[in-house]
Amino acid sequence: MIPAAFEYYRPRDISSAVSLLDQFGDEARVIAGGHSLIPMMKLRMADVPHLVDLQDLDELSGIEVGDTIKIGAMTTQYEMINDDDLADVAPILREAALQIADPQVRYMGTIGGNVANGDPGNDLPGLMQCLDAVYSVVSSDGKRTIPAREFYKAAFSTARKDTEILTSVSFCAPKGGCAYVKQKRKIGDYATAAAAVQIERQGDRCTAASIAMTNLSDIPVWSEAAASALLDTGVDEGAVKSAVSGMLGDIDPAEDNRGPVAFKRHVAGVILTRAISSAWARA
Amino acid sequence: MSKQQQYRIKVNGQEETITAEPRELLIYTLREHLNLTGPHIGCETSHCGACTVTMNRKSVKACTVFIAQADGAEITTIEGLGDPDVLHPLQEAFREHHGLQCGYCTPGMITRAARLLEENPDPTDEDIRFGMAGNLCRCTGYQNIVKSIKAAARTMNETREAAE
Ligand SMILES: Cc1cc2nc3c(=O)[nH]c(=O)nc-3n(C[C@H](O)[C@H](O)[C@H](O)COP(=O)(O)OP(=O)(O)OC[C@H]3O[C@@H](n4cnc5c(N)ncnc54)[C@H](O)[C@@H]3O)c2cc1C
Ligand code: FES
Ligand code: FES
User: Fold this and answer.
1) Closest chain A residue to B61, measured at CA
2) Domains in chain B, ordered, with CATH?
3) Band of the pLDDT at B1, cuts 50, 70, 90?
4) Total-model pTM
5) CB of residue B50 inside a 6 A radius of ligand 2
């Protein structure tokens, strides 16, 4: 499997990277870990005449942990899993990253690539919507931020312009309890269904909730209907059932080799139920 | 066709200069330019792990890395771990515990296991199964691979303790 030929660049700073993108427009693509892009190039589903490698841009790596958590775009899934400060404040990142792909892929795959890719199968976009993260991007026009909840437009189509590089992902240290639960056929597989849940509680009442689903539509689905069904309840069986039916109203899965639509909707319900119960227990 | 370029990589301790197109996959550089045919091509689609090598202290699938990305990297293949006269403890353990049948997956398995044991010298069965999940084997059913890695870990830890 030989990809089409390309010119390769390895800029040493962001401004050179950005000017390459300006120069070549939609003929250029950045490469981070390459573990979504290279398979697509090998299949010749992605044609990239100019490939801009971000690996030397030290500004894009590193994890800052405080009230706000900021993860540089080039931080790998492996680095997220092994960062103990991050795991103290937001253990959900480790929990989710451990469910991505397999060890070899996690050494290479980055958070920036995972969220910028726009593949509905990627796990981190749903989690980032659940946590209300914002993505920082930069171009020759300057910097801007885009909320994860407004980033995804359609499969492989996002609010990021071709000339913009995603530099970091930031979110507030999650309060309450979180869970990421994923159903997959085997390790290394994308989700049949996955759910990201964050719940805050006071005594036995739920005071805040956020729910997002992975791979059940052509974009991640942040379901306000599901979350609001839990608000001000004791997260009892009835409330969880309404949350599931709220979620089922928002997803739109398609039949593929992971199963027919009815099966996916069933799995989505089971997975969300498990994720809610685990987040509630941790809240 | 894009132009051929020169790339420098350090493979099993030796500096190499490679002339290739940037799109060449690292597995082909290793097998065809350097004649290191230990790393195998199984699926060529990033799934099986037969092509696993260590690059800059990471286990990577060499079928999913362009030579241009690897420029400047330090790489270890199965050939850098041991040789027929002096087997690596993992090779010895795979032989002893029937960790292989056809052997096709074995170079990738052992190279991955070597990195796993560097990060976690005393893994449980569960750690091994999770840490080896990027490597597929069609023959053994994995049981003996887990056994082999555990046994190698024991030998390596004993050798380390004896040296201290
Ligand atoms: C066998 C296998 C199994 C996998 N299983 C899963 C899974 O279960 N769950 C999951 O979520 N993922 C999975 N993946 C994908 C993996 O996590 C990818 O590594 C990840 O999706 C992309 O990260 P990357 O750094 O490799 O990005 P790349 O492949 O380098 O890039 C992906 C896309 O994002 C763009 N991009 C990358 N970085 C930036 C940036 N900083 N700014 C702007 N654009 C950028 C690129 O131009 C490209 O279009 C799997 C991959 C493989 C090979
Ligand atoms: S040949 Fe590289 S993962 Fe199968
Ligand atoms: S021994 Fe034959 S594939 Fe593993």
Assistant:
1) A104
2) 5-80 (3.10.20.30), 89-163 (1.10.150.120)
3) low
4) 0.97
5) yes
